[in-house]
Each structure stands twice: as C-alpha cells, then as structure tokens.
Design a protein that fits this description.
Layout: H1 11-17, H2 24-31, H3 45-66, E1 80-84, H4 92-97, E2 101-106, H5 109-122, E3 127-130, H6 133-138, E4 143-149, H7 158-167, E5 169-180, H8 184-197, H9 214-223, E6 227-237, E7 242-246, E8 253-259
Parallel strand pairs: 1-2, 1-4, 2-3, 4-5
Antiparallel strand pairs: 5-8, 6-7, 6-8
Helix pairs in contact: 7-9
Length: 266
C-alpha cells in the first residue's frame, strides 16, 4: 500500500477511528496518485525498477517452501496468496501469472479500482478487495502465502497490524515482509536522497520514525508463533543503475521471510 491529503468523509477515516491500524493520511497520500500505478515513468517509477528483484526472491522462497519446480509454467498453482496493501497490483498480477490464486487488499478504495481495471485489461482473475488485514483476520481467512510488502512503515499501529497479518498465515504457510530499516543510512538514502535530491518519490512518502529494524519485525512475528527463515537486503547499484539483492546489507531496504509450522511435504 502506498498515497496525500485527508479526504472528507473518507470511509477509511471512520475505520481508523474505530480502532483500525489504517492511517487515513497515509491512505489518502497513495490514493491521490493511484492513477499512476502502472506508469513506469511516473511517481511509482522506483517501484517498477525495484519490482523484478523482489519478484525473483519471492518466487524462489515460495517454490522452496512448497517444494515446487521454479521452471514450471505455473509453479504456484493451487496456492492461496494474499497481497496486503496491493496498490495497483504490481505484485498481485505476476503472482497470478505464476499460478497462485491471489487476493489483493488495500485500504485505499481508488487503488483497488485501478488494480481491478488493469487486471481486467490483462485478462487476469485477481480477487481485489477494499479491505484491511484486521477485517480478513477477524473473518477467519487464511492463506498459504501472505505478502506484506512496503506496508508496515505506513500503518498507525505496527504491532496490531503485524498481529493481524500473522493471523492470516495458514499452518505450514509463510509470510514475506519488506520494509525500511530505521538507520541513519536509510534516512539519508530513502528520504533525503530519494525524496529531496533525486525526487524519485513525492516528499513526505516516508516517515523515518516509522521505519522498522529487522530485529523488531522478527520479534513481532515470533510473538505470533512464526519462525524467521530467510532475510536479505536490497541495494541500489548506481554504477549499473539497477537494484540488486544484498544479503549482507540490511541498512536500508530489506525483505524477511517467516513461516508457520513445518512446510508441506514436497
């Protein structure tokens, strides 16, 4: 989930007042630029450049966990996947193409509308919903795979959000979470550099105080009965003008995989 300005009468504002972890200001920020989700040269250009690296890591972790053949046409067939904060569908669509049965949820209704429209144009069946993780958890929904990508740094109550997200992982399932580390380096690169110098992102996209240290994220998931199974950093290579996996560099962007119980028998 990623978008500014509070919308009067926005139903998400009412949800937040009712105890939801949704931050209506964050929701409005991303809703305001929802039309640009699929523009590779627009405000989400950094995410488009970032996407191939995280998709490859996601696919490899999933097929390893469920004993699938990564070279198969649809290696994720039969697996239920939830994309929390799906935005315009930049992860939901490729996961659908890999064979997963995908549900995408977002707290910004406009994001969901954009995602549905684009998936329709692509001929993809994705179950997009204007909903929150807490609502799905309360309804007893469970998924083999939960994607929690670049969301946790935008919520109003991090612990409550992670509790709800973890509850959505079925026994034997897994979650992949991605966020930004709360370090000086992350402040310099992700905020000063990306928002003010290079202008890759609109100013105010991130609040350094909401960045999450890997130890904090891991502790929250362990508290919910999950086991951290893999972690990697992602770094920008200015010489090659591309993103790359950086397993030993968690200082800025990182991804973490956590599992619930033993994995399925291959």
């Amino acid at each position: 989930m990623i978008a500014a300005g509070k919308v009067k009468g926005d139903p998400m504002e009412k949800r937040a007042h009712a105890g939801s972890t949704v931050d209506p200001v964050e929701v409005a920020r991303f809703a305001a630029i929802a039309e640009e989700w699929w523009d590779p040269d627009g405000k989400f250009r950094p995410l488009h450049r970032f996407n191939p690296v995280r998709l490859e890591w996601l696919r490899d972790r999933i097929v390893e966990r469920f004993g699938r053949d990564a070279a198969a046409d649809r290696p994720l067939a039969g697996l239920r996947l939830l994309d929390i904060g799906c935005g315009g569908g930049l992860l939901a669509e490729p996961m659908t193409r890999l064979g997963a049965t995908v549900t995408g949820i977002d707290a910004a209704e406009r994001n969901v509308e954009v995602a549905r429209l684009h998936a329709g144009h692509m001929g993809l069946a994705v179950d997009y919903r204007f909903a929150t993780a807490e609502e799905l958890a309360a309804a007893g929904e469970r998924f083999d795979i939960v994607l929690n990508m670049e969301v946790v740094e935008h919520v109003a109550d991090r612990d409550a959000f992670l509790d709800a997200a973890a509850a959505l992982v079925a026994p034997g399932g897994m979650m992949v979470a991605a966020t930004l580390n709360r370090t000086t380096k992350a402040w310099l690169l992700a905020i000063v550099g990306a928002e003010y110098v290079l202008r890759w992102l609109p100013r105010g996209t991130h609040d350094w105080r909401r960045f999450v240290r890997p130890s904090e994220l891991a502790a929250a998931l362990r508290r919910n009965g999950m086991t951290v199974a893999a972690m990697t950093g992602i770094a920008f290579d200015p010489m090659r003008d591309r993103w790359r996996l950086a397993p030993d560099d968690l200082d800025v962007n990182y991804m973490l995989m956590a599992t619930r119980g033993r994995g399925p028998t291959p």
